[in-house]
Design brief:
This protein has 226 residues and is mainly alpha-helical. It has one domain: Phosphate transport system protein phou homolog 2, domain 2 (Methane Monooxygenase Hydroxylase, Chain G, domain 1, Up-down Bundle), CATH 1.20.58. The chain contains seven helices and no strands. It is elongated.
């Protein structure tokens, strides 16, 4: 295979990652909208759309295996291909979390929500911003942005803890709230995991740039020394 063909195939794979990221963002936003409006039809669409995300991940992985088998890339090229495989897996799991939120919407049905959703949509906004920025960091090999995303995860964790405490209060006030409060807590957990996966992508970007494994704990330690 000519180098130009190899570069073209890599570009196609990276375009596939961008498409997966777009679909994950779309599914997450739709799942939250379905929950806010108790729109069962929209929730079912999100569940059905997850199959497409899964198929894209399978296609990316198979193409990466083909490149590894035929080109046997070394050094930076090998890290690039391995990063595509890793990021594809992370995006596929994010799609599963969006599907999970849609399924929770169906479980809640047409019940009125315990309270207007405020912090959960904010969590979704932050998590999806981290997702978008992690893919930008990958595309541009942006070390600064990748490090920023790893640190942004703290804000999502803080919101999750706030939601947990608030929903626990609702449970203690009235046992009849326990079921729906538990469902909403699951939604917050799925969003927190999307942010964690975006952090994983950012750590992979740092590995791609430096060739060294840099974990979130290392980044927080660096920040505390400044």
């Amino acid at each position: 295979m000519l180098r130009s063909d190899y570069n073209r195939d890599l570009a196609a794979l990276q375009k596939g990652l961008v498409e997966m990221g777009r679909l994950v963002e779309q599914s997450t936003q739709r799942a939250l909208r379905a929950l806010e409006t108790r729109n069962a039809a929209l929730a079912r669409q999100v569940i059905a759309d997850d199959d497409h995300i899964d198929q894209l991940q399978d296609t990316l992985e198979n193409k990466c295996v083909g490149l590894l088998a035929t080109q046997q890339p070394a050094a930076g090229d090998l890290r690039t291909v391995m990063s595509i495989v890793h990021i594809g897996v992370e995006l596929e799991r994010m799609g599963d979390y969006a599907e999970g939120i849609a399924k929770i919407c169906l479980r809640i049905g047409d019940q009125p929500l315990l309270k207007p959703l405020i912090d959960i949509p904010r969590m979704a906004e932050l998590a999806l911003q981290m997702l978008n920025e992690s893919l930008q960091a990958y595309a541009n090999r942006d070390e600064w942005l990748a490090r920023k995303i790893c640190q942004d995860d703290d804000a999502v964790d803080d919101l999750y803890n706030q939601i947990y405490r608030e929903l626990l209060t609702y449970m203690l006030q009235d046992p009849r709230n326990i079921e729906q409060a538990t469902y909403l807590l699951w939604v917050a957990h799925d969003l927190e995991r999307i942010a964690d996966r975006a952090t994983n992508i950012s750590e992979r970007v740092l590995w791609l740039i430096s060739g060294r494994t840099i974990g979130t704990g290392d980044l927080k330690s660096e920040r505390s020394l400044r």
